[in-house]
Structure formats: C-alpha cells, structure tokens
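Q: what does this look like with zinc ion bound?
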Amino acid sequence: MKKLYRDLTQEAKASYGITEDRNDESWVYCTTCDRAMKQGDCIVGEHGVMQCAYDDCMPEGNLAFQSLYGWDALQQELGGEAAHWPEKPEWGKRYERRGASS
Ligand SMILES: [Zn+2]
C-alpha cells in the first residue's frame, strides 16, 4: 500500500516536507507532469523522497530524484515564467512554465 504524506507522524513530516509549513493542505508542483497537488496527497517513496500524487506521472530514470516543489516558492523563483499561475491551483490541471526550454 502506498504511504501518503498525510499519514506520516509530525516528526517524519518535518524531514519529508516540501513546503516550509509542512502542511497537508499546502500545494506543491510536480516538474515532471506540470501539475499541482496537495502536499498531503504526495506519496512517500521507497527511496526516501516524496513522489507525485498522480498515478500516471512517470518520471524517467532516477526515482530518487525529487520533482516536487512548493507552489508558492516555485512561482516566486520562476518569476515571469509562472506569472500566469493562479494563487491557488486546481487539481489535475497542467500549469506550464512559460519560456521553459523543456
Ligand atoms: Zn507528476
């Protein structure tokens, strides 16, 4: 059975958490599939890193590679590339990075 972030103890959340507040309800963004999800829905992988909550998201290569970022933090970091993103994203919707080379 998959282990979700929301099922972790507070202590484990402190080490696995992606967003600074470690909150289940905080949004995170997956750079593999360009979709957002609640941090609590992310899967705690065997490699000790958090994985995307979408079943059809298939990161190529190294599964130990973290592809998740806090929504707010990433949006700030990307600047113009993510200027069109809403403050609160929607589940299942793709949010592309403008001008991203990939
Ligand atoms: Zn994904």
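Residues 5-82 form one domain. The mean pLDDT is 91.
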